[in-house]
Amino acid sequence: MDQSIQKLMDWINSHVNETIVIEKKELRDLDKIHFNLEAVEFRSAEDVIDDYLGSALILKGFGSTLNAVGELVSLPQSTYDLAIDGLRIEDIGDRKAEITTERAKYTLSVD
Description:
The protein is mainly beta.
């Protein structure tokens, strides 16, 4: 496993049983998710059949987000896939991590 991936996974693991706020900026879209983290796993792109699925950190737990009209709605699944292809850690501290991937810019913070 790449050193950057391991560093991010270690950071996420240090916040199991806490709420992580995930802000994902992709093109002109901004998603903000509050995720109650129970566990994290690594999924290698080599382990999946579908070509469109790349390597990812799979966050397990439950979360919610605001929809287009400002209502709080639960995520449809008990996982959140954090795509990590092209991962670059911009900044990482005790309570906050900023990363960039091929797809998006993420800010992860402890709520």
